[in-house]
Amino acid sequence: MPYRIAHPDIELENSISEIWDQRVQKNASMFNGKKFRYGGHTLCKRDGSQQDFHVCLHLGLTDYRTFVGTNLNPLWEKFLVPSEDDLIQCQHTSCPLGNGAILETSDKKIVVLQRSYNVGGISWTRCFPRRPSRA
C-alpha cells in the first residue's frame, strides 16, 4: 500500500489542513515538500539465485504537510487502524521514509547535527545528516 488512504472521518481528515495551517502561522519558514512514503517491502531473489537476496522497498509519495497533519497531529492515534499488520495500521498516516545516515570521519569522529528551532517537529534535538543541503 504505497499510497495513503484518506480517513473516513471527514473531520479528522480535515484536521490535517488545520494542523498544517496552525504550524505555518507559528513558523512562516515552514514549507511543504515531497517525501517518500513507505508502503512495505519484499525479499527478492537476485537474478534467479537461490541464496542471494535483496530487499525491494515499495514506495509511494507523501508530503511534509500530510506528515505534520497525521503523524504529528495531537490526535495521531485516531489515524491508526487496529491491526497487527503495520501497513494496514498506518494506512491513514503519512508513513514518510526516513533517510538519515551515520557519518564517521577519517579521525574516527561521528558527525551529529543539531536541528533548528525552526522546524515542524522535534526541534533543537541532535540528528544525523540526511541530505547534502543539511551536512
TrEMBL record:
InterPro entries: NUDT22/NUDT9-like (IPR055295)
Sample GO molecular function, one term: GDP-mannose hydrolase activity
Keyword terms of this UniProt record: Hydrolase, Magnesium, Metal-binding
Keyword Magnesium: yes
Cofactor: Mg(2+)
Superkingdom in the source lineage: Eukaryota
Protein name: Uncharacterized protein
